[in-house]
Amino acid sequence: MLNLIPKPVYAKEGNGRFVLPDNAAVYSEIDLPLIKNKGAEDSCIKIFKDANLAKEEYYLTINDNGVLIKASDAAGAYYALQSVRMLGRLDEGKNELPFVEIKDKPKYSWRGLSLDESRHFFGKENVKKYLDDMFRLKLNVFHWHLTDDQGWRIEIKKYPLLTEIGSKRAYTHLGGWHCYRIENKEYGGYYTQEDIREIVEYAAQRCISILPEIDVPAHFAAALASYPELACRNIKRDVFGGFGGIVFTKNKIFDWNRPCCMGKKSSLDFIFDVYDEACSLFPFEYFHVGGDECDFSEWKKCPDCQRVMKENGFTNEQQLQQKLTNELCVFLKKKGKKMLAWNDILKKGYENIDKDVVVQQWLPGQDKNTVAFAQNGGKILMSNHKSFYFDMTYAQYPLKNTYDFSPKKYKIENEECLIGIEAQVWTEWIRTFDKVQFMAHPRMEALAETAWTPDCEKDFKDFLGRYEGYKSVYASLGINFAADEICMPKNRIKRSYIVRKFFRGNPDYEFNENNRLKETKK
């Protein structure tokens, strides 16, 4: 069995092994900047350009003559080399490559993974580790959630208070959504524009595009803490450190989910100014505007918002958000970009939404509005909660949930409307990068195979067999991962207990249990 994840489209194993010399040179007809030891055409690793192969596709053969790779682009060549890396267990200090012939290409062109750095900030070096891990598993879109209620993490030069004020909070909510426990300690951090450019370049070298998300008009509290006049009511408040309603209820703050005002020109100018600067930092053709979980209460009472409704003949406040969505879509198109938004924007129907918007479906079940949007020609990115919300416990969403994802379960029958799949790592209850890794592995491996491998070649039992031979690489790479007992739990009573703990008192229970298991196995 080839311990290769994701499983290739076609693989034929031969008899024999090729011993890769130390510091083997690579001859390549494709420019591969990450390859440092470049050699002549008689090198034991040869890469030839083949224009007949599709983007990201590769052909790989290993025999007595060495390693032969064909690809039409850098991504295909690098992915072939990642397969060589995994087959030879090079990260573990080994160098024997099995004879094999592989023909491989991805199922989806969008194979994404997110990281929320508003709730918790992990810094440049950890983001690079995350990107390295994605590259190794042939994932190609990094969705970077940079703004939310609990922190603004991207420098915007026209609005310096966004990072001077909006990047810091005085306290942090602990203990789960239904537990009131806080840490009264300042927390903060942000990326300068130079940091952003450095990370974007680092990702591009690894064939990864970065999708920025700057959430509007809701999830806007950090911006309002910096510039309170952007809201319908000018109320001076600090950046929130609470992640659940219990914190706000205890403190008698019942209007914490306040959006940007849709009636003030200055508020709308702010959004477009921010997007203008952000677009210059991210060359990817897509840009995420958020658009989820917007509370319209203030708009109903705001004279400016009501004036705009009257001028446009609107009958409900949802139409104010639809107006912003469409205007942002047009703005981004002029920047040469396509817009993504969460499927919340479809709540009052898809008819008034610009047809060029790509909708990201995140809800745990079927969403009739997303289905209707897809059936009428709309494009969908699937991030179904039960399969791809990696911030949730394994007790609630075991590993098999990710592997068994199928868009047909959610009535997305025509896969031509599907641009790909993406997993989410929200970090309300993930305070360290060590825990990010724990929540992501081995789910990331299951995601990679679900995004890459044709359905006809997928089998969970086969995946587990390959994973068993693969997972020794975690130690060599310094990756924290969930033990089998954790990521594939069997005891229903214990699973229920862990889920209760996650919501009410100890979101780290499963993480700590995993650490205890690792200690006992030493």
Q: Please, could you describe this protein's structure?
A:
The protein has 2 domains: 10-104, Chitobiase/beta-hexosaminidase domain 2-like (Chitobiase, domain 2); 110-465, Glycosidases (TIM Barrel), CATH 3.20.20.80. The chain has helices at residues 74-87, 124-136, 161-164, 193-205, 221-226, 245-250, 265-281, 297-301, 303-312, 318-334, 368-375, 385-388, 399-403, 433-440, 443-452, 460-470, 473-477, 484-487, 492-503, 509-520; strands at 10-19, 26-28, 45-49, 58-63, 66-71, 96-104, 110-116, 141-145, 147-148, 151-152, 168-169, 172-174, 181-183, 187-188, 209-216, 286-290, 338-342, 358-361, 379-382, 418-423. It is α/β, with parallel strands linked by helices. An 8-stranded parallel beta barrel has the order 7-8-15-16-17-18-19-20, surrounded by 5 helices. The model has no long low-confidence stretch (mean pLDDT 97). A hairpin with a 6-residue loop joins strand 12 (172-174) and strand 13.
